[in-house]
User: Which sequence fits this backbone?
């Protein structure tokens, strides 16, 4: 039961919020503290992962997630728009493989290989195909062995550099491996390969396969899959003993593009309502898991920003726009749709933030602002220092997938910096589940995103444009 | 090319070995050092896992492994016997599950559950069965909810105590969980359950299911599976929101008992050849992985003992008997067959050793000898000290599965003590593969087993009988 005093205080707070200097340290601290006390984001993450599950573009899960997030944002009182996006529609099928011949094989035996189809993979015949496996380490070796590639299954046995990830360079370590996954199938196909395999791009050793996107198109579609690190090493070892032959069955379907949406929820601004601060994550996930880290935490975090500011009855000068992107994983069509709709008034996109590095412990903010703008962020970093998230890192280029086109057009990008040392253990695997997200880290996540969103929406100083535009 | 000197030295060594005092420190050190330089055991392990793969009792892999180990032992010059064993023959089938209804489920959606059938599991209809899931934590809760069990699928959501494993108590931690897996299906079946699920007994968080044996028999066979820790937690969370319904498909087959063998390879003794020192591991594995740790390392280690002594041309007084047991995992019929064949002359079984705790770093020896015999082992422990394996631990009861009947009849048991803190991450999962075994740890393993085998085969002091027989 509310006391008269509580109601009075609440009214005073409500009225007072608009009048107070928008970016005073007290308000920033109040936002941080409110975020650190709220279970809202974790509850949204639990609803998304436990009730819906995987959310690959075009799937019923993705459609249910659009509805669920929109409903939650409407319930908060935000202005919700569903922005139409046509998305690729790829559906996983059967996926099995056996090594049916190799030197030293006892008669009648074959070895099972654990693998998972990559996004956009073509299908083998329903009964599978049998072909020799060629093991290579890089594109140069592939080219040098071009004569062997025709009719073969090419395996890129490239070890994930976990030591690099442990040194804080998980992103580059991932990039080193994922380019073989992304570009390899197309190149192998053009060289006449019957199929493509890549060692899973990730650091875990639990015989789990990591899926992901490929650059395959209708013209060059071949069966393409990620094998587990263990199976990749097995094939590499056996191929040192002699030729290895695989029976491979992959029956995914590439269906016509499907209708889907970006979920856009606005907390309208006051005097600068036409200027937009985007805070976002991507709503689609891969189909193997419930995408708690990739990128449930980003979406739940962005939803938490609106809830935190709403709960405090804070009204930003610029509009704070929560976006739950569709199709980051295999097309970035959501980012493209938003860019297309806004490119003619791109200067109204004041700043944009995406969280897509998982729910690890946040330690600061990464930003593609001009060097001279860096000093403006001292108040927000001071507010985040008490939760261990006071590190501001400026770069010319941030490049979050859904925001890449905005950045190219000069919109400064922001993203939380988080501990990603184990992110690629789980990334794109069946193990990216709710239990991997620490609720306290998610609160910190919301605190970082809320404080920064509020600050951006109210800052007086010129922010300028992203340096990348000047290249 | 051998020089004349080398040949001469080799002859002198060969002749000298028999005459020297059998258990002198120099010989023990020589055995240890030879083991630490040899790749023999690792090569055998690679052949077993890479060329054959899984070796579940009754499978073609198990049959191939019997042949492979016997051939390798014959090649060494050991006296090889195949001891017939009738083994259970259980074959995995399809295994899928979906949560088809739960509170908050968006229309048309279902959630996939990752699981794997347990040994001896019965089958659902080919099209699966649908039933409510009852989540319980222990047998008391199961009994208290007896009315709900009839027609339901019972899930034991019991968390593996990894902290206990980290404290060096992996075995007891495993026992706390595995009793639900072993006994739960039978008890649930007798209460009228339609199916049984257990949270995987193991400490990893990579959504992998751990299979294992059950006490199910023809009279009470129901479908029984292990779900991953992640899926168990999901079901537990959803069941807090309301009733949960699962569609479960498991189609394993329980076939008639199959013919198989223990592989026995003797290095014959000299003056006490009728007394036997058993050194062993189990040759069968679960069917999900290549069983590198469970128990490829045990078998390869035992094979390495014979190779080490043969290479040094050492001839033990007692016969050293390498045994690769069949059917440890789901029946221990191999251990029973050996016991039945030897129980009438049990005093001739001088001592028996089994390694079945994986290939983690060895730190010593566990033994079920009388307290007064402990002091006799000082020389062997001194020899193992330089490789960090000098800890001797005496217990009244060791109880290695294949040797349990021997111990009950008074045969002192020995096993290497190894670091098992991560053993149950991989145990009985698809991830128990060759890459998990560190070759250097396997060399240490062989060093421990060889030195101890030699010592036991030559010791002058009375060893006595296992304390357990006195109970
Ligand atoms: Zn992502
Ligand atoms: Zn075992």
Assistant:
């Amino acid at each position: 039961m509310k006391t008269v005093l509580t109601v009075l205080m609440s009214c005073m707070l409500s009225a007072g919020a608009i009048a107070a200097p928008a970016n005073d340290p007290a308000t920033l601290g109040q936002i941080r503290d409110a975020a650190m006390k709220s279970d809202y984001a974790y509850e949204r993450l639990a609803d998304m992962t436990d009730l819906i599950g995987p959310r690959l573009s075009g799937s019923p899960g993705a459609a249910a997630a659009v509805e669920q997030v929109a409903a939650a944002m409407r319930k908060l009182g935000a202005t919700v728009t569903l922005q139409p996006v046509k998305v690729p529609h790829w559906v996983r099928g059967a996926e099995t493989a056996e090594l049916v011949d190799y030197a030293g094989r006892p008669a009648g035996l074959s070895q099972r290989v654990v693998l998972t189809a990559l996004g956009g993979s073509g299908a083998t015949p329903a009964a599978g195909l049998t072909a020799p496996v060629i093991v290579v380490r890089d594109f140069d070796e592939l080219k040098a062995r071009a004569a062997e590639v025709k009719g073969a299954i090419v395996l890129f046995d490239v070890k994930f550099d976990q030591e690099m990830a442990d040194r804080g360079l998980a992103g580059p370590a991932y990039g080193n491996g994922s380019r073989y996954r992304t570009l390899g199938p197309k190149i192998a196909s053009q060289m006449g390969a019957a199929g493509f395999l890549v060692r899973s791009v990730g650091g875990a050793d639990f015989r789990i396969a990591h899926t992901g996107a490929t650059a395959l198109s209708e013209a060059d579609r071949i069966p393409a899959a990620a094998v587990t690190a263990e199976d990749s090493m097995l094939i590499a070892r056996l191929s040192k003993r002699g030729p290895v032959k695989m029976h491979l069955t992959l029956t995914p379907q590439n269906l016509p593009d499907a209708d889907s949406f970006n979920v856009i929820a606005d907390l309208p601004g006051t005097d600068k309502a036409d200027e937009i601060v985007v805070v976002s994550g991507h709503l689609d996930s891969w189909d193997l898991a419930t995408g708690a880290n990739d990128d449930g935490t980003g979406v739940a975090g962005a939803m938490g920003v609106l809830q935190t500011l709403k709960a405090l009855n804070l009204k930003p000068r610029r509009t704070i726009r929560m976006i739950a992107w569709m199709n980051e994983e295999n097309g970035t069509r959501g980012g493209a749709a938003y860019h297309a709709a806004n490119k003619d008034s791109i200067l109204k996109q004041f700043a944009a933030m995406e969280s897509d590095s998982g729910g690890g412990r946040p330690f600061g903010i990464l930003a593609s602002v001009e060097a001279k703008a860096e000093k403006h962020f001292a108040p927000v970093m001071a507010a985040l220092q008490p939760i261990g998230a006071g590190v501001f890192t400026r770069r010319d280029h941030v490049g979050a997938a859904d925001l890449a086109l905005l950045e190219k057009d000069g919109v400064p990008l922001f993203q939380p910096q988080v501990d990603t040392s184990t992110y690629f253990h789980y990334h794109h695997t069946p193990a990216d589940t709710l239990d991997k997200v620490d609720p306290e880290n998610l609160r910190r996540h919301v605190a970082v995103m809320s404080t920064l969103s509020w600050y951006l929406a109210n800052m007086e100083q010129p922010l300028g444009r992203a340096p990348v535009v000047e290249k």
